[in-house]
Amino acid sequence: MNTKKDIFWRIGLAYLFMIMLGAAIAWKVFYIQSVEGQRYRSMADSITTRYMPVLADRGNIYSYDGRLLATSLPNFEVRMDMKADGLTHEIFQQGIDSLSGCMAGLFRDKSTTDYKKQLTAARKRGDRYFLVKKNITYPQLLQLKAFPIFRYGQYKGGLIVLQSNKRTYPYKELANRTIGYMRDATVQPVGLEGAFNNQLTGIPGKRLMQKVSGGEFIPINDKNELDPQNGKDLITTIDINLQDVAENALLKTLVANEADHGCVVVMDVKTGAIRAIANLGRNEQGVYWENYNYAVGESHEPGSTFKLASIMALVEDGFVDIDDTVDVELGIHQYWNQTMRDAERHNLTRITVRSAFAHSSNVGISKLVEQHYNKDPEKYLSYLRELGLDKKLNIEIPGEQQPYIKDTKDKRFTRYSLPWMSVGYEIQISPLQMLTLYNSVANNGVMMKPYLVQQIQEYGLPVQHFDPVVLNKKICSDETLQAMKIILKEVVDSGTAKNLRNPNYSVAGKTGTAQIADKKHGYATRIYQSSFVGYFPAENPMYSCIVVVNAPSKGVYYGSAVAGPVFKEIADKVYATDLDIHPAEILYAENQQLIPQTKAGSRHELLYVCNQLGINLQAQSNQPWVTQQSGDSRQLVDKNVVEATGIVPDVKGMGLRDALYLLESCGLQVSVAGAGAVLSQSINPGAVIQKGTNISIVLSL
Asked: Are residues 395 and 427 in the same domain?
């Protein structure tokens, strides 16, 4: 009996324990669901879902006249969620054949059967992120979205579209180093892309993504939860036409002289805006490309181009006048145990200072500086610092080096330093720094800061404007400035740069031929740097330009022969294309009573062109299409042409562009023979024609 009670007691205790355990489990389930449920659900969501950044469209970079230098083109990747909630078996089976055929026709890389096999296999596997196609264009994407199955979108058709942007440069290598690039964190940013990265990048958006099998994240919604804000645009000062001619001219001389590298900078005199900046270096294969921004980042001993600063100091301090004389000693002078030589042998002795400068006499310039500053060299050095030659220009792009101008406290300053510095040695400045000095002479003594960006825009509207900056309001007195202009012009008129003299426009500037010191062997290796820096037209300067060619190796290394032709080709291009540079007597045919014969055409365009040329033509007619009354007449009369009437217009005497516009607007099919103005047309004016009728026009040449 006691045994039976003991068994019942134990069974009861076990049941009680089970009831209590069940109650505890039920309570815990209730507690988790009701009390802590939200927290656990958030934790689960945070593991399977995530906000991913959506990159903004990078801003464009434009030339000063609005042409694209750098832009981002959209690139699309198409994937498919084979287990999308709305993608039923019926939808897939009904549309798979048509979808496969459409894709085969659009991309032409696989057959319809191959596409069907791939999509069907992915469906069987239950892929949530199946790659359909990479690198498709926006027009292709629009077509694809209209295909069977995909037309239902993400939830019912499984379509997932991912966008990325690829940076492209419409002008390829043109100004490549100046425009620059932004890559990953391991590559230092270059050029404007790097300097203005924050403005160009924009603000990224957010998109909610869900983790699926395979560890991939797919978007939960069709649209972004937070749209990105696109980057701003840069409007540069670069002139594409000048940039093109500068690079080609530089490349030509580098190849001809088998030089190591070189650079060209063209600057607007009044503002300091850089219109062209070309940098070309030779790689191991002997090909020239923009591998480094030499104009900004490379500092060398400039050689004879630095003599301008020395003469300016001598004249400004009242020590010499350009008509004073100096003994150049047949081009050889001894400074203690060092010999100073002129670049070219000559039999000259006592000549004027202006002649010493024009013929680039090292002996003449160094003797003048040594004579007048040897007791107080700091006076000469302080003037160089007043010109700003020891300071960075702080141009927008990275890589500018600190200029090096010695002072008397420098351990490397010796008794030899003053004469050698006066002719451009024992100092280091960049080509852009040297150009800035010459540009200030051209700009009547006002030193402008060189700059590359004139405006930042957002959706076509300016948000920041960069005005020209004056670095020095007056680098010297008016008398000194006038003397500098005279001697710079004499270099071209009768000195070392006579090959740049031409009858069309005047040039002022200075040649430079410097022997560059090698880090290991000093000057023993005889590596030369050829340069020319100046401005044009000399009387009313519009552009300044510097050309530097490093290590020419064909036996010719003088600045006039190596760098000078590059300057001349650029100046010739400007003269040929810029009306502002032409003298008034050439520009205005009206002054000579010459009236050019014009083609028949648009009244508005003819009057505009003639007004720009200063030719006073008068239009008696208010009609849109006019013709000149006679070859020497100032009168424009009605051409009796009405657009798009179905009546054949009279296009005789018109240029091809206007003739094509009028004839095709009437629905005619036009065939053309010859060039020039229209001489005859196969269907007489005034005839009624049917659309699609063929008409032949014969031009005068």
From this structure: yes
224 and 102 co-located in one domain: yes
Q: Using one digit for the tens of pLDDT, what is the confidence trace for 212-231?
A: 655 566 677 767 677 778 88
Range of the domain at 12: 2-35
The Cα 406–Cα 428 span in angstroms is: 9
Q: How far is the first Cα of the chain from the last one, in angstroms, to the nearest whole number?
A: 136
Which residues partner with 274 through β-bridges?
Answer: 267
Q: Of 236, 253, 284, which residue is a domain's last?
A: 236
DSSP symbol at 152: G
Q: How many CB atoms lie within 10 A of CB 688?
A: 8
Whether residue 554 contacts residue 255, with contact meaning beta carbons closer than 8 Å, is answered with no
252 and 232 inside one domain: no
pLDDT score at 527:
85
- Residues 6+ away with beta carbon under 8 Å from 357: 307, 311, 322, 364, 365, 487, 490, 491, 495, 510
Q: Is residue 690 in some structural domain?
A: yes
Which of these three, 529, 554, 580, is where a domain ends? Answer: 580
Helices (H), 53-144: 89-107, 112-125, 138-144
Report if residue 354 sits inside a domain: no
Give the separation between CA 446 and CA 544, rounded to whole angstroms: 13
Q: Are 508 and 617 in a shared domain?
A: no
Residues 25 and 123 in one domain: no
Q: 411-457 pLDDT, tens per residue?
A: 999 999 999 999 999 999 999 999 999 999 999 999 999 999 999 99
Q: For residue 430, which of 400, 470, 387 has the smallest C-alpha distance?
A: 400
- Could you tell me the pTM of the whole model? 0.73
Q: Annotate 293-350 with DSSP letters as a single string.
A: -HHHH--B--GGGGHHHHHHHHHHTTS--TTSEEE-GGGEEEETTEEEE-SS-----E
Considering the domain boundaries, does residue 623 fall inside one?
yes
